């Protein structure tokens, strides 16, 4: 039987007479219906359709998250020769780690269920470089994990590391990368808000100003709010980090904490394979960028919408101020769902 893990047609069998097990409904994209409906197939039920199991798993994953966060924080302190608190690392790497653990558990459990039988499977895995899927930062990770390509990498690595003796693997050629989208022209109003106004307002900043960044408030509302707080309005723009490529030599390590489950064992192996370069190879560059930011040195409060989650430069800046006393306001968002 052929095991199919994603909707990538390159991994589908050429022989339509082969029996197929689809790991989930996500493998059967409606637009590709002619490609998958021709098979004699079964589709596995999704484990988190059971809401009681979802809640139980959520509680267990939170326990694992806290354990791994402690281990990874210690490892990163050692690697970078720093001594930051757990709270610092929670702010910086916590969003990525939380998402990664939940996603990896989901994929691992589905595969574990499929292989929990005497069935011998055949599976096509795309030939890739071991670190081709490493994200540069949290923002690039968010763009990756929704793609079939990223998920195919995760499934392929899990199969090879955990169930190689239960599957015949065929390596196939790497999928061609889609071309980068052409940059669109910036509307004049957006240009004024994101470029001209921040440039002019930087001459009036104070180190203890209230700090607004990516608030998603209407421009007039944000300007009025800042003036009512007694400061010259400053419109800060979230800054990006330079791209830093993964280095295999810097990833030859493993977390060595207590392994109380099979999942935790594989999790500790795969974190060094997938941790964003901003937290490892590019960490020095990240810190230098933080030191050169023109933002207030001692803000009385911080207001943001989602920058605290997806922008690593902002998180590194905020994490370094965790010993300071300031208010941190953000619009309500659902994260790690």
> What is the strand arrangement across the widest sheet?
1-2-3
Q: Output the helix-strand order.
A: EEHEHHEHHEHEHHHEHHE
Q: Radius of gyration in whole Å, from Cα? A: 23 Å
- Helicity level: 40-55%
Number of strands: 8
Overall shape: it is elongated
| N-to-C CA distance | 33 Å
- Number of continuous helical runs: 11
Largest beta-sheet details: 3 strands, parallel
- Tell me the β content: 5-15%
Low-confidence regions: 178-186, 332-337
Average pLDDT, to the nearest integer? 85
Structural class: mainly alpha
Structural features, described:
This protein is mainly alpha-helical and about 325 residues long. Among the domains are: about 1-45, no CATH class; about 190-240 and about 285-330, no CATH class. The chain has helices spanning about 35, 50-80, 85-115, 140-145, 150-160, 190-200, 220-230, 260-275, 285-290, 305-310, 310-320, and strands at about 1-5, 20, 40-45, 120-125, 165-170, 210-215, 300-305, 325-330. It has a three-stranded parallel sheet with strand order 1-2-3, with no helix packed on it. The relative contact order is 0.14. Residues about 180-185 and about 330-335 have low confidence and may be disordered.
Give keywords:
337 residues, three-stranded parallel beta sheet, single chain, 8 strands, mainly alpha
Topology:
Layout: E1 2-4, E2 19-22, H1 33-36, E3 40-43, H2 51-80, H3 86-115, E4 121-126, H4 138-144, H5 148-162, E5 167-172, H6 188-201, E6 211-213, H7 219-228, H8 262-274, H9 283-291, E7 301-304, H10 307-310, H11 312-319, E8 327-330
Parallel strand pairs: 1-2, 2-3, 4-5, 6-7, 7-8
Helix pairs in contact: 2-3, 3-5, 3-11, 9-11
């Amino acid at each position: 039987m052929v095991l199919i893990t994603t909707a990538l047609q390159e991994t589908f069998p050429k022989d339509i007479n082969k029996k197929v097990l689809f790991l989930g409904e996500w493998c059967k994209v409606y637009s590709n219906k002619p490609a998958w409906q021709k098979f004699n197939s079964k589709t596995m039920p999704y484990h988190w359709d059971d809401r009681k199991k979802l809640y139980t798993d959520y509680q267990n994953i939170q326990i694992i998250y806290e354990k791994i966060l402690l281990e990874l924080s210690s490892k990163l302190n050692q690697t970078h020769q720093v001594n930051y608190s757990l709270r610092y690392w929670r702010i910086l790497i916590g969003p990525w780690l939380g998402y990664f653990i939940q996603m990896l558990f989901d994929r691992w459990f589905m595969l574990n269920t499929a292989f929990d039988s005497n069935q011998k499977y055949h599976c096509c895995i795309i030939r890739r470089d071991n670190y081709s899927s490493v994200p540069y930062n949290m923002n690039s990770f968010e763009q990756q994990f929704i793609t079939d390509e990223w998920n195919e990498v995760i499934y392929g690595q899990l199969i090879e590391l955990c169930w190689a003796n239960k599957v015949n693997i065929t390596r196939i050629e790497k999928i061609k990368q889609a071309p980068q989208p052409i940059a669109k022209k910036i509307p004049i109003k957006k240009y004024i808000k994101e470029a001209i106004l921040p440039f002019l307002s930087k001459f009036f900043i104070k180190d203890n100003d209230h700090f607004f960044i990516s608030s998603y408030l209407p421009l007039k509302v944000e300007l009025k709010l800042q003036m009512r707080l007694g400061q010259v309005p400053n419109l800060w723009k979230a800054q990006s980090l330079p791209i830093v490529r993964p280095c295999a030599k810097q990833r030859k390590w493993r977390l060595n904490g207590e392994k109380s489950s099979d999942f935790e064992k594989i999790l500790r192996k795969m974190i060094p394979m997938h941790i964003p370069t901003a937290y490892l190879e590019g960490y020095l560059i990240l810190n230098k960028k933080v030191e050169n930011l023109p933002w207030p040195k001692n803000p009385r409060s911080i207001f943001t919408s989602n920058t605290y989650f997806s922008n690593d430069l902002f998180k590194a800046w905020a994490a370094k101020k965790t010993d300071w006393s300031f208010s941190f306001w953000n619009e309500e968002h659902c994260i790690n769902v």
